Amino acid sequence: MRTSALLMGLSLLSACEGRQSVLNPAGRDAQDVLSLIWVMFGGAVLLWFLLGVIFVYVTKVEPREMPRRWGEALIIGGGVIFPVILLGALLTYSLPMMKPQREADEGLKVHITAEQWWWRVAYELPDGRRVTSANELRLPTGRRTGLVLNAHKVIHAFWVPALGGKVDMIPGRETYLSFLPEEPGVYRGQCAEFCGASHALMAFETVVMTPEDYAEWIEAEASDAAKPASAEAYRGAEVFAREGCGGCHTVRGTQAQGQVGPDLTHVGSRKSLGAGILEMTEDDLSRFIAHTEDIKPEVAMPGYDHLTPEDLRALAAYLKGLT
Amino acid sequence: MSDIRDQEDAHEFRVEALSLWRITFGPLIWALHFVASYGAAALVCAKASAGAVEALRIGIGVGTLLALALILWLAVRAWRQWDLRRDPEWENDKGTSEDRHQFLGHAAFLLSVISFIGVVYVALPALLIGSCA
Fold this sequence. Notes:
Chain B: Keywords: Membrane, Transmembrane, Transmembrane helix. Chain A: It is found in: Membrane. The structure holds two protein chains of two kinds. Chain A is α+β, with helices and mostly antiparallel strands. In chain A, about 40% of the residues lie in helices and about 20% in strands. Chain A folds into three domains: about 20-100; about 100-220, Sandwich (Immunoglobulin-like); about 230-320, Cupredoxins -  blue copper proteins (Immunoglobulin-like), CATH 2.60.40. The relative contact order of chain A is 0.11. Chain B is built from four helices and no strands. The radius of gyration of chain B is 20 Å and the shape is elongated.
């Protein structure tokens, strides 16, 4: 019993080291949040301890009635002066932290619109170009990037714990947040406001890259989709066209120009599938296409389980090849 | 009851009615300061240019000093009315007119203290953040 409780505790602790943890910051803003957490936590422990000491003192060590002056000093000192100074100090420490989290970008802006249940992403480059993507966020290190947040139909919330604070995404009301990432890596983001049946299945990967890698990647992301490289992928492209996938999805450089669902131009290069819930493998691609609603309840895309296994495999090969 | 007694009561009531009003002044100044600061900040941030933010901060600063001075003045008056030093009694629960008078001073003083703290905390964001972000 005790061993299993200990194991459970340990497994909970190990969750703190993951790529979706405020205790594992990878950017300046998350570092600020973590400092604030430790200061508040340390202060709370100290106060709790102090209260315990006073409690033991007046109940066990010296249980007699206190002289009146002492009592008054305790009430005025401990009940008014001490909390006022403490709260004032906390305000003075924490208020300036709010400023950088909303600071303007240094050249790069990302427009993110929350849909049910995926993320529309558009990079606004310094030269004015807009690069459309979905369900994945890529950021360069050492430079503050602005995140312009919107939502469609219902309220969502944007949260990448490793990079910064959490901000609501509200239909018809733009919100703003900015990140200064410092450590390259892959971090998980998650919708943090209940937004419907598949709320828990609305996540995304955030890839933080060095500026050189980033420049290379954004050029690749801005380019049109790769042509099918194998016979199977070519057949997949035909299935894609025949089934009308392009009515909802865009694959730049092809006939597919739909705006309803996620942009698939470079879907094969993403770290996850279905907004952070499956792996980007051909197996998962064909599973997701055939049983979309089983994997993601109430999603707008119908499942294509009427396709033959060969068609599904070809489609998966085509999409995986869209790097 | 005699008429004389009624007249005395009426006079006393008039005097105390004023100090009953007075205990609300501290929180009232706090509330006005709060509404003015947040209202002005919301308006300036939504409608005005970035240059107006400095003017807003100065405005909030001046308003804060004014509010604090008024509250301080009310606190001093209330402290005198409470008269704790000459009559070191905290409770004032005997129900005499003197006790009522001192109790109202006591209440007004404590409300002034919390209003003072409230005004300082309301002003801190303007001092420490200094932008509309």
